[in-house]
Design goal:
The structure holds two protein chains of two kinds. Chain A is an all-alpha fold. Chain A contains 14 helices and two strands, in the order H-H-H-H-H-H-E-H-H-H-H-H-E-H-H-H. Chain B has a single domain, classed as Orthogonal Bundle (ABC transporter involved in vitamin B12 uptake, BtuC). The chains are: A mainly alpha, B mainly alpha.
């Protein structure tokens, strides 16, 4: 088996195992799995609104998923997608609202997107620097930053932004708003940004010396060092780019949908980015596909809420993570035995 | 003053037990990112069994068993060769949605379980206080002085040395994980039994703070437990300052609960990790 076949194999097994475990949970909840799954597929595929909502979720997930994968390529876990996305949402909305209303879109859209990316990148950089210079484990600093940033963002909202009594800040300039794709759904043109990011990461990883250095550091520090790569510098760069990608997911929520800062906007997508990255086997195109699968699953879960508790599909986002964690060593052993 | 001490002791139970449990699991070589899941399932199981039986003892036992079950899954995955960080985070995601799913299936509600027996406010009459005190003394001693502790540390530092003397590192890690899970599960039971019921996401990140304590303490269980107690003191003082002083009232309430997080981050940023040696085989299958 080639490396790529192994990855596809592992992802397929994990997905099948997830569907199987989901079916068992449906039986526990006294629902027929066949009926629930088929209703889910039918209700999503026959409704343009739901298909649009799945794309809306997949857009943000592919960006937070890419964020996890770029860091993991360098051997680091970026679990701070929540913090980076929250900071991105705040920065994007504040900058967007500060722009004069007549700002033309070719200026407004890049400025707002840049603000989101820079805010996320700053948090990624802090984690990278602490890891490289102080040896602080990135998982722990990430988790601390998730709490700290969430509280600061909420405080800024309450103290300066929320219009009396609401949890919504001032609206962004009309030039910074991305057009809607399907009437009645949240899908918007930010999927172009996500597609661009997928292409960019694919090119960086596979076609540039920077990408080679990134992967070399992830494989083996000593080997990377021996060919003259500065491991610390690559790790900091990887965390910064990773943070920027997670921050960029704010474009989907702020510029594409709510057009303002809102409490809790985008919450949860940073964590589920891990599911997308792992199911996509750290391959940019794979992550795009995995995001569509996960987007379908969560919209589908809401679509069949009347049949089965909506917590069930939420659980599947965690189960798929465990399934992939087990499928990877399983496939490795299987391949070794077959060879 | 006595009231203050009592409040600190009661408030520290969950974090102290979770930090002790995390120390044991990590010293055996398994990254314990799943403490949050053990707290959540422990809290839920305690509330559910407490409601069904009306017995406080049965409720606490259920919390302990739930924590051990989560640990068994976690260690089994780790021993099989799954990435331990990924397994931990996956279990936490499952616990967050899974406890709400169970509430939905069993009680037809997504927010709170029906009432269970409640722990008393009296410190001396609270069984979990005694469990915590015993654990805080016994766990560090057992890790340092007993054969079980020696094997556990060997599994975390040099698993190959265990194989050489005919002991299975996998089994050693499983036993350590079960003890760690039992402690965290008891900590979870405290969460729900203190308020006579489970509510969604009631662990609120305590599992992550406990892990941070384990790391800051350099994987020494006694120090980790002390750190957890210290956080409870800081927390109680902070509430005190907030209510009684003029400056306190100007601290934004959104930021007041950040003390443990900022403290952990500051310690990690200031003290380089050279003084904190993790178990050498931590995270390796």
């Amino acid at each position: 088996m080639t490396g790529r076949q192994r990855e596809v194999y592992a992802a397929a097994i994990a997905l099948l195992a997830t569907v199987a475990i989901g079916s068992v949970l449906m039986l526990i909840a006294h629902r027929g799995p066949g009926y629930v799954w088929s209703e889910m597929v039918v209700r999503v595929l026959t409704s343009p609104t739901r298909l649009g909502d799945a794309l809306y979720r997949a857009t943000a997930l592919s960006l937070t998923g890419l964020a996890v994968s770029v860091a993991l390529d360098a051997g680091l876990f970026n679990i701070a997608g929540e913090a980076q996305l929250a900071a991105g949402v705040l920065a994007c909305a504040v900058v967007g609202a500060a722009l004069p209303d007549g700002t033309p879109w070719p200026i407004a859209i890049p400025i707002c997107a840049l603000a989101a990316a820079v805010a996320g990148a700053a948090i990624g950089a802090v984690i990278g620097v602490l890891r490289v210079t102080r040896g602080a484990h990135e998982v722990i600093t990430s988790i601390m930053l998730n709490e700290i940033v969430a509280a600061i963002v909420l405080w800024i909202g309450n103290a300066f932004l929320f219009e009396n009594g609401t949890i919504t800040g001032p609206a962004i300039a009309s030039g910074a708003r991305l057009p809607q794709l399907v009437a009645g759904s949240s899908a918007n043109m930010s999927f172009v940004i996500a597609a661009g990011a997928i292409a960019l990461v694919w090119w960086l990883r596979g076609r540039t010396t920077w990408g080679q250095a990134l992967l070399a550091v992830g494989r083996d520090h000593d080997a990377a060092r021996s060919v003259g790569i500065s491991v610390g510098r690559v790790q900091i760069a990887a965390m910064t780019v990773s943070g920027a990608l997670a921050g960029l997911a704010a474009t989907d929520f702020v510029m594409g949908n709510r057009h303002a800062f809102e409490e809790g906007l985008g919450r949860g997508f940073g964590f589920v980015g891990l599911s997308a990255a792992l199911l996509g086997r750290l391959n940019p195109i794979g992550i795009g596909i995995a995001s569509l699968v996960l987007g379908f699953l969560s919209v589908g879960g809401l679509a069949v809420e009347d049949i089965v508790p909506k917590e069930l599909p939420e659980m599947l986002e965690g189960i798929v993570v465990i399934a992939i964690a087990i499928a990877v060593p399983w496939v490795m052993r299987h391949a070794r035995r077959a060879a | 003053m006595i009231a203050f001490v009592q409040r600190v002791i009661l408030a520290s139970i969950t974090l102290v037990l979770a930090a002790l449990g995390g120390s044991v699991t990590e010293r055996s070589g398994v990254i314990d990112l799943a403490i949050e899941a053990k707290l959540l399932f422990g809290a839920f199981a305690a509330a559910a069994v407490g409601h069904a039986t009306g017995s406080l003892a049965a409720a606490i036992a259920a919390g302990v068993i739930a924590g051990m079950l989560v640990a068994a899954v976690q260690v089994a995955c780790a021993v099989y060769g799954a990435d331990q960080v990924i397994v931990g985070i996956g279990l936490n995601l499952i616990a967050l949605a899974g406890t709400r799913f169970l509430m939905q299936v069993i009680y037809d509600t997504g927010t709170n379980t029906p009432p269970s027996p409640q722990l008393t406010d009296g410190v001396l009459a609270n069984p979990l206080v005694w469990i915590t005190v015993v654990a805080a003394i016994a766990v560090p001693l057992a890790v340092r002085r007993t054969r079980w502790g020696l094997r556990l540390r060997a599994a975390g530092d040099r698993p190959e040395s265990l194989i050489a003397v005919g002991v299975s590192p996998a089994r050693t890690r499983l036993y350590a994980g079960l003890v760690g899970g039992a402690l965290a599960g008891a900590g979870g039971a405290k969460l729900s039994l203190a308020v006579a019921g489970f509510s969604a996401d009631m662990a609120g990140g305590r599992g992550y703070i406990a892990l941070a304590m384990v790391i800051l303490a350099g994987w020494r269980p006694a120090l980790a437990a002390l750190g957890a107690l210290g956080l409870a003191v800081a927390d109680a003082l902070e509430i005190h300052v907030e209510i009684t002083t003029a400056i306190g009232r100007h601290i934004p309430t959104e930021l007041a609960h950040l003390v443990p997080y900022v403290l952990t981050l500051a310690v990690l940023a200031i003290w380089s990790s050279h003084d904190r040696k993790p178990p050498q085989a931590l995270g390796k299958p």
